[in-house]
């Protein structure tokens, strides 16, 4: 076996373990919390009072207008100056959640706004409250439109988690860096890490296609449950 292939074979379990223990959980947790935050922010911008709308706009403006890496540095390295100490994983989770929330809020706000006004009027005409109309009529229709951009955000987040290496989270990319520090084979190991990211993204892209077909065929997951 060629030395480069032996190195990749030996390092693969370690890299996969880092992806399983840190990269994937960080992605799932950040996206879940970010999606909830994005939904709350979008609703606040669309239906909240002026002070709430202003606060939501400011949050989105800040986190969409600054680099994610800078945000992570501010949270992990900057907050200790204010007496707030966070471990690396928690800091990364907060940073990714806030960043994802800002971007998903714009997606959700756009898809809710795209639902025709007549759908609101129809819901009110049969006695629904605002929350019932939102839950039973508006969100099911908006969800179908939101699936592709939200899926793309999720796939991008998988790759963006590599930035957590900069604040010492031992995820996939930083694990590759640590192995490079002992083997002095950056080309081989970084290519191997890239291939793992590529495999994860490819699987998620295939799942995205299936999810879009399901929503197209059955009218969305939310409607399927009602």
TrEMBL record:
UniProt topology in membrane: Multi-pass membrane protein
What SUPFAM superfamilies does the entry give?
MetI-like
Membrane-spanning intervals of the chain: 15-46, 58-79, 187-207
- State the family it belongs to: Belongs to the binding-protein-dependent transport system permease family. HisMQ subfamily.
Q: By its UniProt entry, which Gene3D superfamilies does this protein fall under?
A: MetI-like
| Official protein name in the record | Amino acid ABC transporter permease
Kindly state which keywords UniProt assigns to this record, in alphabetical order.
Amino-acid transport, Cell membrane, Membrane, Transmembrane, Transmembrane helix, Transport
Give the domain of life.
Bacteria
Record's subcellular location: Cell inner membrane; Cell membrane
Question: Which residue ranges does the record assign to the ABC transmembrane type-1 domain?
Answer: 20-208
Q: Name one Pfam family in it.
A: BPD_transp_1
Grouped into one coarse class, the protein's main location is: membrane
């Amino acid at each position: 076996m060629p030395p480069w292939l032996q190195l990749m074979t030996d390092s693969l379990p370690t890299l996969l373990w880092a992806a399983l223990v840190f990269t994937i959980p960080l992605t799932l947790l950040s996206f879940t919390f970010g999606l909830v935050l994005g939904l709350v922010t979008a609703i606040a911008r669309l239906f909240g009072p002026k002070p709430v709308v202003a606060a939501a706009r400011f949050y989105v403006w800040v986190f969409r207008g600054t680099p994610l890496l800078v945000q992570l540095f501010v949270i992990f390295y900057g907050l200790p100056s204010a007496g707030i100490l966070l471990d690396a994983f928690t800091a990364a989770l907060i940073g990714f959640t806030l960043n994802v929330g800002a971007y998903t809020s714009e997606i959700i706000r756009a898809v809710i706004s795209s639902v025709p006004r007549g759908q609101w009027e129809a819901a009110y005409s049969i006695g629904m409250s605002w929350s019932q109309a939102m839950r039973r009529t508006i969100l099911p229709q908006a969800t179908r439109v939101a699936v592709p951009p939200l899926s793309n955000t999720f796939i991008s987040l998988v790759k963006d988690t590599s930035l957590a290496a900069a604040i010492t989270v031992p995820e996939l990319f930083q694990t590759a860096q640590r192995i490079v520090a002992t083997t002095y084979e950056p080309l081989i190991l970084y290519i191997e890490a890239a291939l793992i990211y590529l495999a994860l993204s490819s699987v998620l892209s295939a799942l995205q296609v299936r999810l879009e077909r399901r929503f197209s065929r059955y009218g969305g997951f939310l409607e399927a449950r009602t």
